[in-house]
Design a protein that fits this description.
Layout: H1 2-29, H2 36-43, H3 49-52, H4 54-75, H5 82-114
Helix pairs in contact: 1-4, 4-5
Length: about 120
């Protein structure tokens, strides 16, 4: 039960930090420079962000990134030494991001077809 509480706390904190430091800034200044996440989705996965809506994609990315980081933190939560935590996070990060963005691109492609 403690893990679920920690997961919810981690998720909320990461979501709020990412929202206030990144998404809100993008919304406030209506930044025309696309973020690296959106550029990856557009160039590698061929997602048309304009059809879905840039702000909607940013909100979905905020949720997915917070969920992904929370899951990775919960995986290494019980490890004893910080060096083990760092090494496990380092090994997990790239495959986890790749798989998560793959499924995210599939979902965004679905939203893109739905908006036509």
């Amino acid at each position: 039960m403690n893990y679920l509480i920690y997961f919810i706390i981690f998720f909320c904190v990461i979501y709020l930090i990412y929202y206030f430091l990144y998404v809100r800034k993008q919304i406030k200044y209506n930044n025309k420079n696309l973020s690296a996440d959106v550029k990856i989705l557009e160039s590698y996965y061929k997602v048309d962000v304009k059809k879905i809506g840039y702000l909607r994609v940013l909100r979905i990315l905020n949720f997915i990134n917070a969920l992904m980081l929370s899951i990775m933190l919960m995986i290494v939560f019980n490890l004893d030494k910080y060096i083990y935590k760092f090494l496990v996070l380092l090994v997990l990060m790239v495959p986890f991001i790749w798989v998560t963005y793959y499924f995210l691109a599939k979902y965004l492609k679905y939203l893109e077809r739905k908006s036509e």
